[in-house]
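ok so I'm stuck.
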Amino acid sequence: MKYAIISDVHANLEALTVCLNEIDKIQPDRIICLGDLVDYCAQPNETVEIIKSRCDVVILGNHDEGQFNYELVKGYSENAYISSLHTRTVINPEYVEYFKTLPYSHTENNLLFVHASPCRPESYSYVLETESVRENFKYFAEQVCFIGHSHRPVIFEERGRNIKEIYSQRLNPNCRYIINVGSIGQPRDGNPKVSFGIFDTEKFEYQNIRLDYEIKPASDKILKEGLPKSLAMRLFEGI
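replied:
not stuck anymore, here's the structure
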């Protein structure tokens, strides 16, 4: 079975459109979204509607939860907080109710899908350093866990007691993995291109796909909405 795994769309319709056009060419069996449909960019309603119609499974992200769990928003960075409050003023209430139905995690085919981390997914912790990676491997039994949240694509391999970052598409069927698919709408690894993943269960292969998209229209819309200028400018740099 072939999976397309996307995450952190963040209301960037231009990026999402390019991503889904590519996914249509690949023709996966399943499309899984790891959450964070809204905030930062300018088109939350259009984004949610498309994700609802196109994805087989959608996971709850912290920015989605922030639209009904207002306490969560108090811990955001300044720009994230401003963006969340703005989204609150424009989002269709129907979509907020939809967010309330989304799960923190989903399992199928020996794969785990979460937004941030397998360790207490509702806490939205980052999985970045070796020790946090090692700890998180303890919290799931599946062979592969797919995550987003940090907006930085990376593959961590657990081989026995050894943990390392790898770069090969072909995975080892005797190892376990935590794979961050990166971000559709706001990449933060210094590469502004759309980032998502394709995983083939039969070949046990994972591919991180990067795509160009028209950044300026997305950036201009952010400015038109009156959101912080830095949110518009960072799209060009992938930060």
